[in-house]
Request: fold
Amino acid sequence: MTRKLPPMHPGEVLREEFMEPHGLTAYRLAKILGIARPRLERIVREEIGISADTGLRLAKAFDTSVEFWLRLQDQFEIETARASIAKELDRIERVA
Reply:
């Protein structure tokens, strides 16, 4: 039996792949991005997601695309929702 890993929150990617390698604290990155520190802390603690506004700011700061950040968020939400409503999805019949 294969065990599936939980979906990866974009805050984990931000923390592990961007903040830690650059030695950035939440305080410093929030200041760079021009957002409130608690907002960034909640993202990296995986309590809230990345909005288009935050995605645009992260894209600029790390020379990535906004789509990178928003796709991470979308994928997390899709996988979380799929797991949450899996039994209900199984009961839905296809239309033609």
About this structure: The helical segments are 10-22, 26-33, 37-44, 52-62, 66-84, 86-91.
